[in-house]
Amino acid sequence: MFRRLAISFGAAASIILLIASLVIIYEVHYHLMMFEEDVKGFGESSALVHHFEQALLSSIIWTAAGSLILVAVISYFVAKNLSRPLVQMRKAAEKMAGGELEVRIETIGNDELNDLGTSLNELASQLQKQEEARKTLTADVAHELRTPLATVKSHIEAIEDGIFDPTPERMSGLREEIDRLIYLVQDLEQLTDMESPQFTLKKESVNLGELLLKNAEPLKASFTQKGVLLNLNTQGNTVVEADPKRIAQIMFNLMSNALKYTPSGGRVNAEVFEEIGSVVLAVKDTGIGIKEAELDRIFDRFYRTEKSRNREYGGSGIGLTIAKKLVDAHCGDIWVESKPGYGTAFYVRLYK
Ligand SMILES: Nc1ncnc2c1ncn2[C@@H]1O[C@H](COP(=O)(O)OP(=O)(O)O)[C@@H](O)[C@H]1O
Ligand SMILES: [Mg+2]
Q: Which residues form the HAMP domain (predicted)?
């Protein structure tokens, strides 16, 4: 780059000098000839003309030589200055490719080179963020897998060593642990699916009220079994453009949470109602509630409140993350209101 610039500068300067010299020599010679013709008897002083031409030629040669050196020196520095940021960027890009994502390019001023530098810096910080997210995800997944796997392993070892009898309860306990692992893997699959660039919604006109009634059906048995009352309610025109499968997923995640975190004897109200310009889904329970300090963290990946970390509730902590991502994909809003000991209400608003 630098060499190419220097060569182009040098070549342009030499060509200009050459043309200028030729023109000067030709013009001077031509005019002197005319002068000789005009002024008779000039022949005697032709030595003067000769010396004059000689002086002119040498001064042109010296000027040309001096200018060429000057151009060479100037173009060397100009080219070096121009190519320096490019060289710096190339080096930075090579470092980034090698995994050193903390490198940044110095950007001063606001020309195109600087814009390029800024873009490269942004690229690096995006890559850095993704890399960090990937690391935490891997660490979290490893952590989530470790506990159930360790439990299953120690139980099986105890059974093998004859310390534990493989009673039906123990076996079903083991199966539950394995189920938990399966759910975790399914949740993770969904989450990756949603985060992939290929993720798209298959939108159509959906009646959210009807969808709620339909999707609550298979859950009714679990509610009855636990002794939690499920009330369903829908009001107004609840048709919106949405992906029915994804909305069903949101409803399932919210309702199964409500069931999970509501003790028997409690109640869950799931409703869909029309508001001006939007449709709202509300899932309200009379369950254990969530502390205010934890409210804004429950949508985080793997986050579970202190209370729900024990075996009794133990989920993966991904259900709400998935729900939020799906609501975001629909450009809707999701929020929660809760009072520990009294209950929790989750709301989803989708715009018409
Ligand atoms: N209806 C609810 N009542 C009380 N706490 C809830 C409710 N829904 C969610 N939570 C809290 O939010 C956390 C995250 O929810 P979620 O992402 O669905 O994970 P989990 O797999 O634990 O259900 C839960 O662990 C629980 O602590
Ligand atoms: Mg859940």
A: 80-132
